[in-house]
Amino acid sequence: MRLIIVGFCLACWSSFTNAGELKFLNGSKLNTYCTSASPVDKRYCEGYIAGAADAFSNAFDMQGIKFFCLPYGASDSQLRLVVAKHLKDNPTALHYSADTLIATALRNGFPCK
User: Fold this and answer.
1) Share of the chain above pLDDT 70, in %
2) Spatial separation of the C-alpha atoms in residues 23 and 51, rounded to whole Å
3) pTM (predicted TM-score)
4) How far apart are the C-alpha atoms of 82 and 5, rounded to whole Å?
5) Which of 52, 61, 82, 101 has a CA that sits 20 to 30 A from residue 34's CA?
């Protein structure tokens, strides 16, 4: 859990380009991290996805909505592969924010039954 929190904090921190200016990660940049050969980039991607998944799960759960249903034991690398496939299959959507694309990928990959 600590790694997920650290990864999300790093993802949020790296979104700030300079004081007072916020730059969100888009799908193109997320795809670069997720498909990189670098283990550091892959962990960054996994941490960002895990943080977004936690945030969406909590936000929707508070509203009584199940937007996606992650299986018990789903690994960070499994989530990365699902999101990376969604990004690869939808190149015209890469300009959208990464969090929106993550939510869509997880909904399509892990629908609630």
Assistant:
1) 75
2) 17
3) 0.76
4) 20
5) 61
Going from the C-alpha of 98 to that of each of 34, 39, 72, 90, 91, the distances in angstroms are: 11, 20, 24, 13, 13
| pLDDT top residue among 57 and 75 | 75
Q: What is the 3-state secondary structure (H, E, C) of 38-92?
A: CHHHHHHHHHHHHHHHHHHHHHHHHCCCCCCCCCCCCCHHHHHHHHHHHHHHCHH
For the chain, give percent helix, strand, coil, nearest 5.
Answer: 65, 5, 30
Written as six digits, the tokens of 75 are 């690994």
**What residue numbers bound the domain in which 88 lies?**
2-109
Contact criterion met (CB below 8 Å) for 22 and 16: yes
Number of domains composing the chain: 1
Which of 1-5, 22-26, 44-48 holds the top average pLDDT? 44-48
List pLDDT tens digits, range 85-109.
Answer: 999 999 999 999 999 999 999 999 9
